[in-house]
Design brief:
Belongs to the AHA1 family. InterPro entries: ASHA1/2-like_C, START-like_dom_sf. The chain is of the alpha+beta class. The chain has one domain (about 5-135): START domain (Alpha-D-Glucose-1,6-Bisphosphate, Chain A, domain 4, 2-Layer Sandwich). Helix content is about 25%, strand content about 40%. Strands 1-7-6-5-4-3-2 form a seven-stranded antiparallel β-sheet. Strand 2 (about 40-45) and strand 3 (about 55-60) form a beta hairpin.
Length: about 140
Amino acid sequence: MDKTIITVESSINASLTKVWDCWTNPEHIKGWTFASDDWHSPIATNDLQTGGKFLTRMEAKDGSFGFDFEGIYTLVEPMKKIEYVLADEREVKIEFIEEGETVKVIERFNPENENPIELQQGGWQAILNNFKKYAESK
């Protein structure tokens, strides 16, 4: 089993309350969970509790491709930490760290085996950058 962990992070210029709400509220999730403007997320459900399930549908706006991003929460510490296992059994850990007027969001995850590490890191970082833009505009 590959023990590589990919890390992406961003500092969000918003309150912890706002960052948490934008990250966990399904109506907000639909506004940022895609890497580029030619994609969107028409569906998001989120049962934010240990053992709860989540699903976000990510699709190209032209309908050419789409997939479900889904998993089960293994740990939820409100305003601090979220951990989950994806449908393909990869683990993801997310931390929310208040730093003065900003919140640092750090995501760590196991890579999948189909795409190069750099591509996966770039894709997740692009989504996190989109989250930053979204949360700071709310």
